[in-house]
Amino acid sequence: MAEYTREWKYRAWHPVEKKMYSPEDLEEPDTDENAPKTIFGQLIDGVLHIADIKTQPPTELVPMQSTNWFDQEQFEVYEGDIVEIDGNVFQVIWDDEIAGYLLLGLDGTISPGGAYLGDAMKIVGNIFENGDADPDERRRELKFRAWDPDAKIMYMPEDIKDPQTDMMISLYAYLSFGALYIYDLKNDPPMELIPMQKTGWKDSEGAELYEGDILFYGEYDEVIQIVWSDEVGQFMLMANDGTLSPGDKMTVEQTKLAGNIYESPAMVPQL
Hints:
Layout (H helix, E strand, L loop, with lengths): L9 E5 L4 E3 L17 E6 L2 E6 L6 E2 L1 E9 L5 E3 L2 E5 L2 E8 L4 E6 L4 E3 L8 E6 L8 H4 L5 E5 L4 E3 L15 E6 L2 E6 L6 E2 L1 E9 L5 E3 L2 E5 L4 E8 L4 E5 L5 E3 L2 H4 L2 E6 L11
Antiparallel strand pairs: 1-2, 1-6, 3-4, 4-5, 6-7, 8-9, 8-12, 9-10, 10-11, 13-14, 13-18, 15-16, 16-17, 18-19, 20-21, 20-24, 21-22, 22-23
């Protein structure tokens, strides 16, 4: 069975310094003794936090996730970017309803986005450096679980804590050049785990749903899988025949969580 290979990558806005930290600024701390890092990115109870420890208490930055799209000049597009497409200006926003990215026009209209627009898209700014967005209003919960491919264990968000506050924890999650990595340190060498992001959707019984989850849907318990699509920049529902359909909260609330691609591999659609 194929494993997830997509990259979870971030930049971060510093609301006090009014500075955008690039992925390269979010390197794992202390890799360069001559230039110790003060910006830490880690998972606490599975939720991504990026903080500047120069200040006390530390200043919480605003994580901004990569869409995995690239513009016409091959610059990576992040949520919060302002882009121009065919003379029209849009803001790249995250929409909880569809669990994906959309394009918000200056007139308030919403359009679908996607990697397929790259040749026509040009980044012209972002909502913080070229706007007056409220950082507190732009924060969203970026939550993860993680699969251990060696031990065959699914670690839930509450298993992924800050190792500095709980010395019994063997899981370590950090950002390196803005990319998220999760390791189990009790292995030698440490075992790299597979992050799986929360979608923001819930099933009919209120269970939180993650990418890679398998759901029962409809009168005949059709089996569908939650997958991420870079092409359209959102979580999608994949049927047994490989057909991809956009999801939304109303549709997903009619489903029931049946398992996931790692713990229930026999249920994975065979394409």
